[in-house]
Design brief:
This protein has 20 helices and 21 strands. The protein has 554 residues and is α+β, with helices and mostly antiparallel strands.
Length: 554
């Protein structure tokens, strides 16, 4: 007789085995579904939760001076970002993060709460390395570090107006950083990474697209000479309590800009820079009435006309000249003067009589041939063309005053370009900031006439108003300029002192222009405030570039 509970043992075994078989079949079916049929779907779902494509920042191209010294480089830095909802989910973590970032906790919490639906919020860009280490060690939920690059300028203020600066995303905003932004900017890459549930990268899966670094740029600037120009210009601004100042040094035979300095300047390494006067590149953007430094071009127009030579006499007595209601004055009564003396002594009366004997169209043509009234072609952003009024609007007084530098405006770089054309046999070249890209130029004046003009300008330094521009062991040619500044009710007692010069005079290699704006003390003539700066900077330039001496010690 069978015992109770074991009446149908085979049935129970069969049921149990059936259940096991069905379970195994279901598991197998589910496995096939996961691993074969819908593998790509579930793989995609998993990847969507843990695999991420992240950008690989590209390094911006470096900028070097003509000798290979670095002027701008991009250094790696860390930036802090967060997934707000992950950080807010952990009480007290916002306060810990705020302390590490040296921020107020309450505004940070509000900012995160306002962006809680977002998956990415910058907290602080370009943090110091010690802050980055502290953040990493805290291992806060939803808080991460990303590698970026920050621009660094080793030469600081001395080259700031040439280089400009980049924004926090390393894109050019001013200067050559802006002009050559496309050249310097690289192409970001993409890499695929595996993140854990807290968003931390635990493995780099693959490099989808490698980053391409920006291209390097070699400038015509000589950092050594740039420092000298900056130092000497700063000394002059302090000495004369000037409002601002500019110095430009050009290589006469190539048009390459060896130095360009403006004061006031700014620190390109600081994000707290002022967007006002200090950032503006006065050498290219600021135009002014040049005064007597423009006289060589009116003299060339007179000589080119064939009606005058250096020995042609004009009577400048009694040192004044009336044109309608206007009176033109010299500093003293020079009496009978030849054309050479008019330039050497910088006679306004003599220049006016010379100019009025010329056709306005011819004089205007000479000025525009030498680049006045047009941008120089340097490619620098924001460059001003200055103003040369059309000759058809010139009355007698305008023709006279333009000959000695009033009624037209120029930039310091235009003056340097024009004097470089005189120095280089009458050949005009666009000034360039890029080493090795000089233009063949265009002939704008007869080479014989340009050589005669260099000789006349040497007389200005040897015998006339430019005596303080002399450089020991070198012959120097140049011209001073002193112009009054226009105010609300006409010209007032503020001045701009200028000197433009060429060295060595026997075989011109370099051209320099110095502009001292609004000196506040007694000295304000270009020969007193600008010529000495030219002499010191040019002496250093000739020595640094190993230009052979052509004169005697002075």
């Amino acid at each position: 007789m069978a015992k109770p509970g074991f009446k149908y043992p085979r049935l129970r075994v069969a049921v149990l085995l059936g259940m096991v078989f069905l379970g195994a079949t279901a598991l197998l079916a589910r496995s096939i579904d996961l691993q074969v049929i819908n593998r790509s779907f579930y793989q995609g779902q998993g990847d969507a939760r843990h695999l991420r494509d992240v950008g690989v920042p590209a390094v911006r191209g470096r900028i070097f001076d003509r000798n290979g010294d670095p002027l701008a480089i991009s250094t790696p830095v860390e930036s802090v970002w967060a997934i707000p909802r992950d950080l807010l989910a952990e009480p007290g973590q916002v306060e810990v993060l705020a302390a590490a970032l040296q921020m107020d906790a309450e505004p940070l919490a509000q900012r995160l709460a306002q962006r809680s639906a977002q998956d990415f919020v910058w907290l602080r860009r370009h943090v110091n390395p010690d802050v980055a280490v502290a953040i990493e060690q805290l291992d806060l939920p939803g808080v991460h570090l990303s590698r970026e690059y920050r621009r660094f300028y080793p030469a600081g203020e001395a080259v700031s107006h040439v280089l400009g600066f980049t924004d926090i995303d390393d894109r050019g905003q001013e200067g050559l950083e802006l002009a050559f932004d496309e050249w310097l900017t690289g192409q970001s890459g993409v890499k695929r990474v595996l993140r854990d549930r807290r968003g931390r990268v635990i493995e780099q899966v693959e490099l989808v697209k490698p980053a391409q670094s920006g291209r390097d740029l070699t400038l015509s600037i000589d950092r050594r000479l740039q420092y000298v120009a900056y130092r000497e210009l700063k000394g002059a601004v302090v000495e004369h309590k000037a409002r601002s100042a500019t110095c430009v040094i050009l290589e006469a035979t190539t048009g390459e800009i060896l130095a360009l300095v403006n004061l006031p300047s700014f620190n390109p390494n600081s994000r707290q820079r002022d967007a006002g006067d200090g950032v503006r590149n006065r050498a290219l953007t600021d135009f002014f009435e040049p005064g007597s430094v423009i006289k060589p071009f009116a003299i060339m127009a007179a000589l080119e006309s064939g009606r005058f030579d250096e020995k042609t006499l004009l009577d400048t007595a009694p040192g004044t000249m009336k044109i309608g209601q206007y009176t033109i004055r010299d500093t003293s009564n020079h009496g009978l003067m030849d054309v050479r003396s008019i330039l050497v002594e910088s006679s306004n009366v003599g220049m006016s009589k010379l100019a009025l004997s010329l056709k306005a169209e011819h004089m205007h043509d000479v000025l525009t041939r030498f680049g006045f009234g047009e941008v120089t072609g340097s490619g620098f952003p924001g460059e001003s063309p200055g103003i040369v009024p059309g000759y058809d609007r010139w009355r007698e007084v305008e023709q006279a005053t333009i000959s000695y530098g009033y009624g037209l405006t120029v930039t310091p770089l235009q003056l340097a370009q024009a004097f470089a054309a005189i120095a280089d046999g009458g050949r005009m070249r666009p000034p360039t900031f890029v080493h090795g890209t000089q233009s063949p130029g265009v002939a704008v004046i007869d080479p014989t006439l340009s050589r005669r003009m260099v000789d006349l300008l040497e007389g200005v330094v040897v015998e006339g108003t430019g005596g303080q521009a002399k450089v020991a062991n070198y012959r120097v040619a140049g011209k001073t300029g002193t112009s009054r500044k226009a105010g609300q009710s006409g010209y007032d007692e503020r001045y701009i002192g200028t000197f433009a010069g060429i060295a060595p005079a026997s075989d011109p290699k370099l051209v320099g222009v110095v502009v001292i704006n609004d000196p506040q003390l007694e000295a304000y003539y270009g020969g007193d405030v600008a010529a000495p700066v030219f002499a010191r900077v040019m002496a250093a330039a000739l020595r640094l570039l190993n230009v052979p001496a052509d004169g005697v010690e002075t």
